[in-house]
User: Fold DUF429 domain-containing protein from Fodinibius salsisoli.
Amino acid sequence: MKTLGIDGCRAGWIAISLDEDNAGYWLLESQQALGDYFEEYDRIFIDVPIGLTDEEYVRECDQELRDVLGADYQSSVFSPPIRRALHAPTYAEASMTSFETTGKKVTLQSWNITPNIRAVDQYLQEDESLREKVFESHPELLFQKLNGGNPILQKKATKKGLRHRLELLKKRSPFVDDFFRDIKEEYRRNQVDEDDIVDAMALALYAGYSLDQEMKTLPEEPPTDSTGLTMAIHYV
Assistant:
């Protein structure tokens, strides 16, 4: 089975596979390219909200993730818009829709990733078979697992934090060092940032692990949204 980790970046998406027989990296610059990779791979971990509430401002999985990550990393967990606000044409309209229903507006951080949420949601609505192989995960939770269950003290935006995460990954895959260097050389920072690379690698690593180890979720018994999508953060 072919596995893949996908993280959003400024140019679209960075996709990485750490499979022994399929290792590689790809910059996906269009929604069509994303859909093609969804079709091609058998198990995908992606850092984007999947499944949206109709009325609750905060999904249960996001609240549990914030509790697990701790106070220093709560800001890395965005609350996605409610489903009614997903296709709003402007930030103002999305915020108004959210406020009318939940009493809270959509944050700018969440609005900025809304196009990515829409793209993934569209594919999972159009082809329900993808729901069996495309799973929401979160890099900081995975790095915490790699770090023995302990949060990493330095954020990934710092040199120490990035280096710590890279070292954790290098211990577990022979492709990490070369891929990190090659992606930095091949793409500009305004296309793919360094933290996008390590995040996609963590997602790729755990997508691979999930084939042989039990896949777990936050929460343990996740709810589904009104379209049947599971609202959960996946890990092993």
The chain is about 40% helix and 15% strand. The mean pLDDT is 97.
